[in-house]
Amino acid sequence: MKFHHVCGEAVRISDDYKSASRSDHSFSHGIVFCDAPIKLNQHVSLELKCTSLWSGALRIGVTSQNPNTLHSSDLPKYAFPDLAQKEGYWVRPVNENETFTGMKIIIYINAIGQLHLFMNNQHRGVYISNLPTNQNLWLLFDLYGTTKAITLVPSVNAFNSEVVSTTNQSQ
């Protein structure tokens, strides 16, 4: 998985499309997409880099809109609430008090359309529900506020596999 070249005007994509960083001069215009649809139960891992210059934090979501059909100039300032109010977009903010530089986030979508979130190996539960599993979904992130950069990192089962299997069976 890599980041897509379509991104917010304050974002710079680097490291072979594995890192996305936002300008120090802005707390907004930080929307980034992954370059391919996420597969069901595919674990996507990222590491955060934060700043104390602003307030608010990362927004996490998905879209059924193929980023290839979008233009950077058409992206709004914010994923939440701007994109979240549009059809085909599902976005939620992460609590600013729970983010810090070096934090690892793992995301996956299960077969019943639930996006699960792990933050530093702790399962935070279903973060977004009722996602359509019968269509392609691309991950999207908004490097908002204190979130300066995100880097896609190899997905290791850093969390307890029993939690995942129990979660998949019970939900």
UniProtKB/TrEMBL annotation:
Q: Which domain of life is it from?
A: Eukaryota
SMART domains registered for this protein in UniProt: NEUZ
Which keywords does the record carry?
Metal-binding, Repeat, Zinc, Zinc-finger
Residues annotated as transmembrane: none
Q: Which GO terms describe its molecular function?
A: ubiquitin protein ligase activity; zinc ion binding
The NHR domain, residue ranges: 1-155
The record's PANTHER family line, in alphabetical order, gives: NEURALIZED, PROTEIN NEURALIZED
The name of this protein is NHR domain-containing protein
The species is Lottia gigantea
